[in-house]
From TrEMBL:
PROSITE patterns: HELICASE_ATP_BIND_1 (PS51192), HELICASE_CTER (PS51194). One of its GO terms (molecular function) is 3'-5' DNA helicase activity. This is ATP-dependent DNA helicase RecG. InterPro entries: ATP-dep_DNA_helicase_RecG, DEAD/DEAH_box_helicase_dom, Helicase_ATP-bd, Helicase_C-like, NA-bd_OB-fold, P-loop_NTPase, RecG/Mfd, RecG_dom3_C.
Length: 683
């Protein structure tokens, strides 16, 4: 049996009823398998003993002692039990606040285990935080390393521990090891049952280290099997050679009012080399907000279109789809390229007409959200899939778009750079292109911080910009009022801002506004009829209105760094000086302070990504990418474990080189796990 297959609900374990189970559910633990993979966040080492005498210096002791005396202190109406112990090195008092019941279990003369934190009081060692247990041959909480689990207030460690103990007792003997014995031997890793037992209840420090390494290795192993197999598959699936002419590309370039930046030129060549190669393209294009990725993507699409192929351009929001569709239409229709927006708002009849045009090949470039891979969408000859803001999509969504054709070329774009170590191991089979330089004439956005209460200055500044004919965004963390949070919200602030700026048209946009309405508002904002756009973070990605020069983000402390950076990227899109105002509430957490400081200090997206990683760890950054399907990293840590990842990769490459189909009997379990992960195919 595989660990992942232990689906029996936790209520099947002795001692866990419906009420307790609900507390477990809050931790995401439903099955016994979940419980066994709920790894400790820390340990308390009670395997080694330290005497009371040592507590003078360290403040802690774990010892075997004898009870010398028991008495009560405090008011007679509210007595508190006191237990005196002596371990041969020193005397100490245990003050039992709220634990007078201990008098029933213990008496003077008894030998006991005691562990606690001690301090000097009135010249004597004393503890109020301790645990005590009668001395026996097989103590419950002494002589071992005890696990400390991530938990909630309702679920004490003791209940978690005994649940895990019960689960181990029942299931360890049934557990199969997915890793082949040869690999375990070569890397001196313990078998799964041993590792699982030791991660929860380590007999000693060494065993714990070996168990951890083994479990981390296993998670990275499956991650790499998927990445390496995808790479191998791509290498073998060669495309038919086609001549991809660049006449259209050249003509569009010459018609542009500006030259491409050197980085744009370089990337375009890298992509064209992939285009003409028989190996399907898998390229990740990283470039900071405003660096001109959209234009590169459209130029890159032209050789495909000229050669008679179709291109799909997928973006995360309707708003962005609309905007890209307009850009594409403006730039490409003069050359006879047929572009279409597969909007979510299309009426059924219009949608049917468009879908049949796509199927007949009467559309060259289709732009849309995840609607592009809906079941009813079929392409005549899709050869290139472009995915903008790729980090907003999960692995399986990207894969589903690719299923719309046999091995189309894939161009992923992102303004949220993936730190190098991670890029290498996760996208190790992808080629990378980077646009570092901005189009000439861009002035870095000036960022100002303002504490709530001082925002009037900001509003006045914005007024001056509006008077110059420019436009502004105001961003809020909430759409409407919230019962829980006392925050400014978009709906009430739009009213305020209409009164504050009576001369200009102010509009509200957020995810609950119907799509048609959103389209109308965006169009009027692009045309400059609407001068102030009040929004939530829906405008985070991609929105490109060069005449907008101000963005005011209120309650800026509530946004993550990546989002703040993306939001700021909505301005500074022309040669006009732009401004970002981050209005924050007082009482900032240290983390929030660090985020705001970073925003003030730099506009470099790569630097910000590294800072982000530093401040909050890599977890969320990768959520969409790998936390899909069976692949959840519960113990491995992509940056910390990067060195091991390289080793694992070598092992996986060697294994798959020898046995690509994983056909040997010793690989049966690996294959089973992979077949399941394949249902959510990786890129
Ligand atoms: P992003 O990389 O954020 O997707 P966009 O593709 O939206 O950036 O480009 C931002 C703006 O820069 C657009 O208005 C675009 O027309 C303009 N732009 C792109 N390339 C250049 C260039 N080489 N010179 C001047 N402006 C450019
Ligand atoms: Mg973009």
């Amino acid at each position: 049996m595989l660990l992942e297959d232990i689906s029996a609900p936790i209520t099947t374990l002795a001692g866990i009823g419906g009420k307790t189970a609900r507390h477990f559910h809050k931790l995401g633990i439903r099955s016994v398998g979940d419980l066994l993979q709920h790894y400790p966040r820390d340990y308390e080492d009670r395997s080694t003993f330290t005497s009371l005498a040592e507590a003078h210096a360290t403040g802690k002791a774990t010892t075997v002692a004898t009870i010398t005396l028991m008495d009560y202190i405090g008011k007679p109406s509210n007595p508190v039990l006191r237990i005196f112990i002596n371990d041969g090195t020193e005397l100490a008092a245990l003050v039992c606040f709220g634990r007078n019941f201990l008098s029933r279990k213990f008496s003077p003369g008894m030998k006991v285990f005691v562990s606690g934190q001690f301090e000097m009081r009135y010249g004597k060692l004393q503890s109020t935080r301790f645990i005590i247990e009668p001395y026996t041959e097989s103590p419950k909480e002494f002589g071992k390393i005890l696990p400390i689990y991530p938990t909630t207030e309702d679920l004490p460690q003791t209940i978690l521990r005994s649940a895990v103990e019960a689960a181990l007792r029942q299931y360890l003997p049934l557990l199969d090891d997915p890793l082949p014995p040869s690999l375990l031997a070569a890397r001196s890793l313990p078998p799964l049952p041993e590792a699982l037992a030791a991660i929860h209840f380590p007999p000693d420090r060494d065993a714990l280290t070996r168990a951890r390494t083994r479990l981390i290795y296993q998670e990275l192993f499956f991650l790499q099997v998927i990445v390496v197999r995808a790479a191998m598959k791509r290498k073998t699936q060669l495309q038919a050679p086609v001549h991809f002419p660049r006449t259209l590309q050249e003509r569009l370039r010459r018609s542009l009012p500006f030259p491409l930046t050197p980085d744009q030129e370089k990337v375009l060549e890298e992509i064209y080399a992939d285009t003409t190669s028989p190996r399907p393209m898998a390229r990740l294009l990283q470039g900071d907000v405003g660096s001109g990725k959209t234009l590169v993507a459209l130029l890159a699409a032209l050789p495909y279109i000229e050669a008679g192929h179709q291109v799909a351009f997928m973006v995360p929001t309707e708003l962005l789809a609309l905007q890209h569709a307009e850009t594409a239409h403006t730039l490409l229709s003069p050359f006879g390229v047929r572009t279409a927006l597969l909007a979510g708002t299309l009426q059924p009849a219009a949608r049917r007409t468009l879908l049949s045009a796509i199927l007949r090949g009467e559309v060259d470039l289709v732009i849309g959200t995840h609607t592009l891979f809906s079941d009813d969408v079929a392409y005549r000859n899709l050869r290139l899939a472009i995915i903008d803001e790729q980090h907003k999509f999960g692995v399986s969504q990207r894969a589903r778009l690719l299923e719309k054709a046999s091995h189309p070329d894939l161009l992923l774009m992102t303004a949220t750079p993936i730190p190098r170590t991670m890029a290498l191991t996760l996208y190790g089979d992808m080629d990378m292109s980077t646009i570092k330089t901005m189009p000439p004439g861009r002035k870095p956005v000036r960022t100002h911080l303002a504490v709530l209460g001082k925002e009037e200055k900001v509003y006045t500044w914005v007024e001056k910009e509006l008077e110059k004919g420019h436009q502004a965004y105001f961003v809020y963390p909430l759409i409407g009022e919230s019962e829980k949070l006392e925050l400014r919200n978009a709906e009430s602030m739009v009213e305020f801002l209409r009164r504050r700026y009576p001369r200009w048209k102010v509009a509200l946009i957020h995810s609950r506004i119907p799509d048609e309405e959103k389209e109308r508002i965006m169009r009027e904002f692009m045309q400059g009829k609407i001068r102030i756009l009040v929004a939530t973070s829906v405008i985070e990605v991609g929105v490109n209105v060069p005449t907008a020069t101000c963005i005011v983000i209120e309650h800026a402390e509530r946004f993550g760094l990546a989002t703040l950076h993306q939001l700021r990227g909505r301005v500074g899109r022309s040669d006009r000086q732009s401004y970002a105002f981050l209005v924050y509430s007082p009482d900032l957490t240290e983390e929030a302070k660090a985020r705001l400081r970073t925003m003030k200090e730099t506009t470099d997206g790569f630097l910000i990504a590294e800072k982000d990683l530093e401040i909050r760890g890599p977890g969320d950054l990768l959520d969409g990418t790998i936390q899909a399907g069976h692949l959840r990293l519960r113990i491995a840590h992509l940056t910390r474990d990067a060195p091991l990842m390289h080793e694992v990769r070598k092992d996986v490459e060697a294994l798959l080189a020898r046995d690509p189909g994983l056909l040997r009997p010793e690989h049966t379990l690996i294959r089973t796990l992979i077949e399941r992960t394949d249902k959510e195919p990786a890129l």
